Each structure stands twice: as structure tokens, then as C-alpha cells.
Amino acid sequence: MSSIRLQRFLARAGAASRRGSENLMTAGRVQVNGVVITELGSKVDPDTDRVTVDGIPVTLTDTRHYLMLNKPTGYVTTMDDPQGRATVAELVSDARIPGLFPVGRLDRDTSGLLLFTTDGELAHRVLHPKWHVTKRYVATVEGRFTESQLQRLRDGIELEDGPTAPATVELLGARGRTSTVAIAIHEGRKRQVRRMCSAVGHPVITLERTHFGPLELGDLPAAQWRPLTDTERGALLSAVDMTPDSAPSASDASPDTASRTTPDADTAG
Ligand code: URA
Description:
Layout: E1 4-5, H1 6-12, H2 18-26, E2 30-32, E3 35-36, E4 43-44, E5 51-53, E6 56-57, E7 66-71, H3 88-92, E8 101-102, E9 110-117, H4 120-126, E10 135-142, H5 147-155, E11 158-159, E12 162-163, E13 168-175, E14 178-185, H6 192-199, E15 204-212, E16 215-216, E17 225-227, H7 230-239
Parallel strand pairs: 9-15
Antiparallel strand pairs: 1-4, 2-3, 2-5, 5-6, 7-9, 7-17, 8-9, 10-14, 10-15, 11-12, 13-14, 15-16
Helix pairs in contact: 1-2
Bound molecules: uracil.
């Protein structure tokens, strides 16, 4: 095999997303043939070079895993929290899939659909603005929306980091002093849905992600995970212009047969 960029190698090997792989490198955690490599343009030959992360060998594998978790509130979206808080890693540890990492983030106080994979290229694409993957949230908020407030959310609203792109917004109901609204966005800014609702005067009480691109949370119980079906995996890959052929399924492979162990790696999202 010819040389490829080290961060691409790490992402394809499932060490982390592409951005997460760059972070591993700049943090000095990656060695090639025993030498720490921090230079992002560096190349490796997967056939001859020995790559390690924190001293643990990383190799390319054709087996890529995809699963969804119904994240409960109270868990931080990271595979390793230096502050010792409860993390989503605990909820998927029984999958025993080395190199698994969450795609993007849900806030600690947000529940719902969180995608995990070992496929760094897929993760890179679904988080990239070019592919505009839509995320749908159901928010219960304080107060009652007026039609003009809903329209402002739809049209795009000014936040401190710039205006939001147009969103799909549907009022699902109003009860007492609260309302429930479904908001579909394709951006992924920090606490975006919470900030959008607050900007029109309705602080979020609870927030759940129900859809991620073509994936639907459905009735998956809280704190449970399941592998994506072949149909879901195909739909997800085609949403970001990848094909199942370029990303072989792991559905028939036992995690126990995986050929390597990689350390937990945080992902940006
Ligand atoms: N928007 C938020 O405010 N929080 C999330 O976790 C996801 C989207």
C-alpha cells in the first residue's frame, strides 16, 4: 500500500475521528517506528510502518462498526473524562469494540440518539458542513411560543457566534406553562438548540435528539445501544456519499476477534 497521511491512517484505523486524530498527534501521543510524530502533514506506509497511540499498536482493519445509543442525561459525551464524571463510554463498554468513539456531542443534560463508530471517515463527513446532515431535537421549554417566535427560529436567529441557518420548526404542543417543539438543524454549534430557544425567550427544560440524518431513535430504551441495521448503515453512508463497499460491515464479526486495541480518544463535534 502506498503512503497516506498519518491523521488519515489513524482515522481509518478507528483511533478517532480525523480531527480527533490530529489532536492525538499534536498531543504527542502518536509514534511511528518509535518516534513521536506531531507534524500533521507526515505520511506513513501502512504496510511497513509501525504506528502506536500511547504505545498501543494501531493497524488498519476492514471491520467498521456503527451503533446508536439512547444517551440518558447526566453523561458526558467523551470516551475519557479527566474530571472523572460519568461518560458515554461506560454505556457502550459492553460492546467491547476497540476504537469506538462518539460522532459529535450531546450536552451532558441532553438525551437521545448518539451515533458511535470506528469509521473515522464517516465521522468526519457527517460532522462536516458540506454534507449538511440534519439533526432533529424535541425540546420542552418554558412558556408558550407565538407564531412570530416560531418563524424567527425557522428563518434563522442571531446568536453571539453569528446567525443560525434556516431550521425546520414544528410546535408539538403546549401544556400549562410549557411548550414542546421539534427543531431540525444541520449545523452543530455548541448548545445550539438551547441558545436558539433562549434567544426567543423560552429556556429549554428538557432536550432530546430523536433523529440523526436518516437514523431514528425509535423506542430504544434509555441507556441502551444497538448496532445499526444494514439498511440504516447503507442510508447513513449514502447520506455522506460513501458506499457500503468502501466501508465493510462489522455486523457479522465478533468484537472479540478485533485485531488491536486503541486507547479512548476524544472527538470534536
Ligand atoms: N443543541 C443543544 O443545545 N444541545 C445539544 O446537546 C445538542 C444540540
